[in-house]
Amino acid sequence: MSVWPGMVMVMVAQAQIDGVRVAGHAGRVRREIGGDWWILLVRRVSRGRSRVHRGRPVARDLGSPWQDTVASERTGWRTRAAWLYGESVFAVDYRICRRCRIGWVESPATDEPYRRCGLAAAGLAALRAERPGLIWHTLGGHFRESRPFWETVGSGIPGGYRQGPLCPHVDLG
Ligand SMILES: [Zn+2]
C-alpha cells in the first residue's frame, strides 16, 4: 500500500479527533486490582525477557478507553493510560501516600499523533478529581521542553507538580 501526504494528513486529523474524544472521557476508568499475586508472578517470571524500559510507563489493556493498572516497571506505582484501537496512546505512572496526602506522577507520555489533544491534562485532572485535597508532585525533574506543560497543568494545583521526594511511607527502596 502506498502512502501519500494527503492520506497522512487525514490520518493525523482523525487521530486528533479521536484523542480529543478520549480526553473527554477521562473520568470513566476501568481498574485492575492492585498487587494481584499472578501479576507479581508474571512480572517476576518475565523479568529480563520483557522489552527494555525506556522511562515510558508500560500499560496492560483492560479493553476500556481509560485504564488504571499496576505499574509494570515501578513497584508500588500504578499506571493511568488512555487507549485507542488496542494501543496505549497516553500513559502516566502515579503513586499516592494517604497519610501524607501527597500524590506523585512520573513520565507522562503521549504518542505523537495524539499530542495536543489534552490527554495528559485530562488524565492528570481525573487523578486529582478522584482524590481531592492531595498535594501533587513529580518525582523527577522537568526537562526544559516539558516545563511549559508542567507550568500549565500545575497552575493553581497544590504542589504544582514541582519535584518532590517520596515520603518515608512509600519510599521503601
Ligand atoms: Zn507518606
What's this entry about, in short?
The protein is α/β, with parallel strands linked by helices and 173 residues long. The chain contains four helices and seven strands.
What's the average pLDDT? 85
Question: Which bin fits the share of residues in helices?
Answer: 25-40%
Count of domains: 1
Order of helices and strands: HEHEEEEHEHE
Number of strands: 7
Q: Which ions, cofactors or small ligands are bound in this entry?
A: zinc ion
Q: How many angstroms separate the termini?
A: 50 Å
Estimate what percentage of residues fall within beta strands.
Answer: 15-25%
Describe the structure.
It is a single chain. With about 170 residues, this protein is of the alpha/beta class. It has one domain (about 5-165): Aminopeptidase, CATH 3.40.630. About 30% of the residues lie in helices and about 25% in strands. It has four helices and seven strands. The chain has helices spanning about 5-25, 35-45, 120-130, 145-155, and strands spanning about 30, 65-70, 80-85, 85-95, 100-110, 135-140, 160-165. It has a seven-stranded mixed β-sheet with strand order 1-2-3-4-5-6-7, covered by helices on one side. The chain is globular and about 55 Å long. The termini are far apart. The model is unreliable at about 50-55 (pLDDT under 50). Bound molecules: zinc ion.
